[in-house]
Amino acid sequence: MNPESSKLYTYADYVQWDGRWELIDGKAYNMSPSPTWEHQFAVMELSFAFRSHFQNKNCYVAIAPFDVRLSESDDYTYAKHVVQPDISVICNRNNLTPNGCLDAPTLIVEVLSPSTALKVYLII
Q1: Start and end of every Putative restriction endonuclease domain (predicted)?
Q2: Higher confidence at residue 28 or residue 105?
Q3: How sure is the predictor about 91, in pLDDT bands with cuts at 50, 70 and 90?
């Protein structure tokens, strides 16, 4: 399914779609094409460094694709924000679910490319 550009969506819609998407303020953003080799190299190097640093601190390091759901309420089924940061560090085990992370991770890293720079601006 391809979301309409003018409609607002929630996580309940998001889980029905094929491909990689993010939601920011309910608006769907397609995450293709795949990242460059340089992008993936940076993500792997950083994730290794974070994993080494956090290994004895009860924190978990996840790399994309990994859903982070942000909601204004306690009902994350209808979250208007679903993002997949390149790297997420989660130090609150209660935020982890089989489908990703509920609420903001302790730390996120987004390796910027021209296509992601605009989305980062929208989130801030």
Answers
A1: 13-117
A2: 105
A3: very high
What are the strands, taking DSSP E only, across 26-106?
27-30, 60-63, 68-70, 81-83, 87-90, 96-97, 100-102
Of 87, 113, 115, 119, which Cα lies nearest the Cα of 101? 87
Contact 84, 64 (CB under 8 A): yes
Q: Which of 50, 81, 77 is nearest to 63 (CA)?
A: 50
CA angle (88 as vertex; 63, 104 as ends), nearest 5? 140
Whole-model pTM? 0.79
Q: Which of 59, 124, 65 is nearest to 95 (CA)?
A: 59
pLDDT digits over 33-64, tens only? 778 899 999 999 999 999 999 989 999 999 99
